[in-house]
Amino acid sequence: MHAARKPRSRASAATTTGGHISTELRINDRIRVPEVRLVGPNGETVGIVPTPDALRLAQEADLDLVEIAPQGKPPVCKLMDYGKFKYENAQKAREARRNQTNVIIKEMKLRPKIDKHDYETKKGHVVRFLNAGDKVKITIMFRGREQHRPELGFRLLQKLAEDVEELGFVESSPKQDGRNMTMVIGPHKKKADAKVEAKEAKEEKAAERAADEAAEKAERTAANAARPASIPKVKRRSENLDPDIDV
Length: 247
Prior knowledge:
CATH topology of the domain at 105-191: Translation Initiation Factor IF3
Shape: flat
Radius of gyration: 38 Å
Strand content: 15-25%
Distance between the termini: 111 Å
């Protein structure tokens, strides 16, 4: 059984010197209102109670009295382990930052009368960008009389969107702005997922390369083992004698 503890008195106030607004919650004896709307540790509503009584309940339960809604009339306070609460919130914030992705918008420029080879090259770049989890802004550049035929650019953008529809979707429909017509294609996969897939693919290739090298080494070892051993040539007695010496 836990020994009763006195609610901590050194808690950060809602305001600090210099007029800076703090994000810390008021707890325990920093709560100066005469009464509070109390919530129990499991989320149950206790009701409106005098603040000294709420502090006593917190002490008896070995918990803190935390003001979670100061704008309430009266303010809403909850019985909780404030240290654990802050730790869990910090963990959640850290996890959210880790999962946050910075979406990069790549740009690809095309001419309305692009030839097939150039189109395939440009499409390949778009595919690569989408696979990496990046958005792609496609810009059709019109020149001269081409500005009076926007349908050429629209059809080209529509074709490109259809060609990569398995990887991305039209996030911003084609719209013309002067000599240019633009469209934005967003990836189906998230940036984080794309990074994980790229890492897994890299590791898989490394494993395959290591397996191939091991197989080649095993083949060389087996070939050397199967090769017949060479028998050393035994010299006859006459071969060991100097021909100029009479025997």
